[in-house]
Specification:
This protein is α+β, with helices and mostly antiparallel strands and 204 residues long. 24% of the residues lie in helices and 31% in strands. It has a 6-stranded antiparallel sheet with strand order 1-2-3-10-5-8, with no helix packed on it. Helix 1 packs across helix 3. The longest helix is centred in the first third of the chain and has 15 residues. This is Helix-turn-helix domain-containing protein.
């Protein structure tokens, strides 16, 4: 997924409203479930907000859709090149993510990210849709999943159910890694999947 086709902010604005409407949720109800303020959600849907990793992952968890359904990844064919300087960074408390590609194969969907955990920082997640795979490229990474903690070094891999509470910590220097999010194809919500009678707009 290359975000050079449009900013994360603009893509999230269009897709958040679409998915929220397909789910039949008002902004008030989405705010209650996600713990994100109504004003913030309204800003995000209007393209005026400043999305963070925490916000996007929280929306993914509550709406039960892959991250790329919010960031608008379109299937590509042939040669795909994403230049480091062209991929817009999605930042959180301790992590910077660069979305690279969405891959669909059979009944599986994969999202590929370049991930950097900043030195001395910790990134926590309450959980979200899918299975999470991480391969460390450089540095020493602490990964905690529902109270169980492991330490990874260059070349090490960890995989886990992403719906569980988890965190990444870089205790020393910054950690570079590849993050792969895996979903079942039926976890992606399409426009045609909206239930009959779903309201076309639920603002409040």
């Amino acid at each position: 997924m290359s975000v050079s086709e449009g900013s994360v902010r603009d893509m999230l604005a269009a897709n958040l409203r679409r998915v929220r409407t397909e789910r039949g949720l008002s902004i008030s109800e989405l705010s209650r479930r996600s713990k994100i303020g109504k004003a913030t959600l309204s800003q995000l849907e209007s393209g005026a907000g400043n999305p963070t990793i925490e916000t996007v992952f929280s929306l993914s968890r509550v709406l039960e859709v892959p991250i790329s359904d919010l960031l608008d990844a379109r299937p590509t064919s042939g040669l795909t090149v994403v230049r480091a300087k062209e991929a817009e960074v999605l930042s959180g408390e301790g992590v910077d993510l660069r979305p690279l590609q969405r891959i669909e194969s059979g009944d599986a969907v994969f999202e590929l990210f370049d991930q950097e955990v900043r030195a001395g920082c910790r990134q926590e997640s309450l959980g979200h849709v899918g299975t999470e795979h991480t391969i460390v490229q450089a540095g020493r990474l602490h990964v905690q999943v529902e109270g169980q903690e492991v330490e990874l070094g260059p070349g090490d891999y960890v995989g886990f159910d992403a719906s569980l509470p988890h965190s990444y910590t870089a205790p020393d220097e910054a950690v570079r890694s590849v993050l792969l999010l895996q979903y079942r194809a039926d976890q992606r919500l399409h426009l045609s999947d909206a239930a009959p009678g779903t309201p076309s707009s639920t603002e409040d």
